[in-house]
Amino acid sequence: MSTPFYLRIALDKPLNQTFDYEPLANSRMHDYQIGMRVNVPFGQRSEVGLILDIHNQPDIAPHKIKPIKERIDDSPVLSSELMKLGLWLHEYYHQPVGECLFTLLPVLLRKGQTAKATQEKHYCLEHLDWQKVERAPRQKAFLEWLQKQNHKVSHKQALDAGFTPSIIGQLIDKQLVSELWQDNFNALCGDSVEQALALNKEQEQALKGISEKNGFNPVLLEGVTGSGKTEVYLQAISSAVTQRKQVLVLIPEIGLTPQTVQRFQQRFNADILLLHSGLNDQQRLNAWLQASRHKNEKAQIIIGTRSAVFTEMPNLDFIIVDEEHDASYKQQEGIRYHGRDIAVIRAAKRNIPIILGSATPSLDSLHNALVKKYQHIRLTQRAGDASPANLEIYDIRKQSVEHGIADELLQHIEETLEQGDQALVFINRRGFAPTLYCPDCGWISECKRCDARMTLHQKPAHLHCHHCDHKQTLPHQCPNCLSTRIQAMGAGTERLETHLEYRFRRHKVIRIDRDSTQGKDAMEQLLQPVHNGEPCILVGTQMLAKGHHFPKVNLVIMLNVDSGFFSADFRAMEKTAQLILQVAGRAGRESHGGRAIIQTEFADHPLLHLLSEENYHALALALLEERKLHSLPPYAHQALVRADSPNPKEAEQYLHRLLQNIKPLTENGISFIGPLPSPMELRAGRFRSQLWIRSHQRSRLQNFLKNIEPLLYQQKGFNKVRWSLDVDPSDHI
């Protein structure tokens, strides 16, 4: 009689435990593998689980263990590499092991769908017999076209080319064409039409530094905007592409996908897979499966946003993280991982090179470079004949300002347009105005569900809270004093667009923000006049700050960027400096020089002068010294326990109780701040509070979090409180 065995199952639940189940009746141990999915009974429901272990020693009495309902997979959906990565997520971020492992899977696999791609009909040329089609010109045309398409096309390609199913069906009946169903992966095909560009001396040295080391080699590539970092990326991965390996390219936002894809597609004969939030669940699964089944027949480049770092890639040979400083790499819900950090961990575990690229590297990455954990390579010159834009400070105190922009700066825009160039006006506020107010009684339109003001939009007209997404119609009179003189306060992208359209009637004003780019391909269509070189004005938010190449933009004006100088967030100055230089980098990208002007009420700010008179690197070193003085990251390490409740003070009471319970476990070198109300205490109808846990040693903090983990799940008496643990938090507002 064979020894009984049990399956240790992880469920996609916020539970700090795993569960033992019996296998199906008459099944054997070799029918199961770690990383396979099964359906299991859980309470009154059936849940999808992942096999975490196969063992002979259950945690509970064998007679209490239920059998699984179904084995979903015949082979693991997660390789041993990804299983280990999921367990690392669990151990470092102290989140439930099941949630960590299921985070690695596409949504449809989490729901239990079979790991199969959708299939699409294809047509193959069997043989040519022109006599059979001599009286059928459309059938003959299809055969001729099919010959030019390497004898095989998809059903969609045939329809797009103007051939009807009737024509194709007749050719199938004549046995000239056959029908074949294949997985619908929809990879983009590179065509190698672009040759590698000549590198300048700095780029050559950068490429040499990246290529001369084998295995795990984390490189921080710090290059000013326009310095040709992308060309260095392309030439650095050429060896991996030649060997038909896989390359992962992470980008911070979906808006950067088209231009990134174009560069890689024009350079390499490779399949290019896209993974981002713009795809539906089935498309993401198709791409994930195609990457997971790579057979070295052709190189594969996977381009995606944050979660693409979890893609199954058996032949992964190189990783690039572009704009590594970007805050969108940090997940702010569920498992609060950092995509950049996971990429570094994955490269280390696979022993492959990784490039972290940025014009304005995060202080965390810069510190790692300064202490020699990363190789630090700098590109200080723009590629070709381009020269960096001059960064100027414009003091608007005592100046005439209308609709948020100074009159003198409007004259600069007019001069730029007359020269046939383009101007970009940056304001990081969507909508028409930040709020409505009443000049008679001082009423301000505030969100009832948040500690925030309602933003005024005019296209269409409504009030909108950008924190909780609450919307309401515009009031016709002040709800406080009934005055009809309510008016907009401040300026947003819509108001600026309206003002500039009135002032510069002969030129296009193009607004780029989340509201104007919601439609499919909306961004590309809006930017077409810019790429065509027409004199025009771009108005937009930080969507314009990253990665775009606007050769004719010769003037950049930045409004309201100085608000970050006085934020409660200790990272605010770092983020503000990064934003300023990213926006300024849109100017003067061709041979003629450009201007970047910061309109500010705080022209005397010392860090602003350091940024404009020297460079980001000098400012970053100054900020690092400041962080060191105050024991802030990267010189200390933090975890943040957040709690929220619909009842005032309940979240804070929960954290006070938690602090009482965990203090007896406190070791030397662990300190606490709080509990305190969050800077925005009320958000989406819930009152929020937070508790900081700090240590100068990462290992000591990790050990403490491991010890208190059970206590986090055992808090009783706070049924309406939601809590979360964020290790290495990047935002606490």
Automatic annotation (TrEMBL):
Binds 2 zinc ions per subunit. Residues 210-379 form the Helicase ATP-binding domain. It comes from Bermanella marisrubri. Its EC number is 5.6.2.4. The gene is priA. It catalyses: Couples ATP hydrolysis with the unwinding of duplex DNA by translocating in the 3'-5' direction; ATP + H2O = ADP + phosphate + H(+). Residues 473-627 form the Helicase C-terminal domain. Pfam families: DEAD, Helicase_C, PriA_3primeBD, PriA_C, Zn_ribbon_PriA. This is Replication restart protein PriA. One of its GO terms (cellular component) is primosome complex. Keywords: ATP-binding, DNA replication, DNA-binding, Helicase, Hydrolase, Isomerase, Metal-binding, Nucleotide-binding, Primosome, Zinc. Component of the replication restart primosome. Initiates the restart of stalled replication forks, which reloads the replicative helicase on sites other than the origin of replication. Recognizes and binds to abandoned replication forks and remodels them to uncover a helicase loading site. Promotes assembly of the primosome at these replication forks. Zn(2+) 1 binds at residues 438, 441, 478, 481. SMART domains: DEXDc, HELICc. Its cofactor is Zn(2+). SUPFAM superfamilies: P-loop containing nucleoside triphosphate hydrolases (SSF52540). Belongs to the helicase family. PriA subfamily. PANTHER family: PRIMOSOMAL PROTEIN N. Zn(2+) 2 binds at residues 447, 450, 465, 468. It comes from the Bacteria. InterPro entries: DEAD/DEAH_box_helicase_dom (IPR011545), Helicase_ATP-bd (IPR014001), Helicase_C-like (IPR001650), P-loop_NTPase (IPR027417), PriA (IPR005259), PriA_3primeBD (IPR041222), PriA_3primeBD_sf (IPR042115), PriA_C (IPR041236). One of its GO terms (biological process) is double-strand break repair. One of its GO terms (molecular function) is DNA binding.
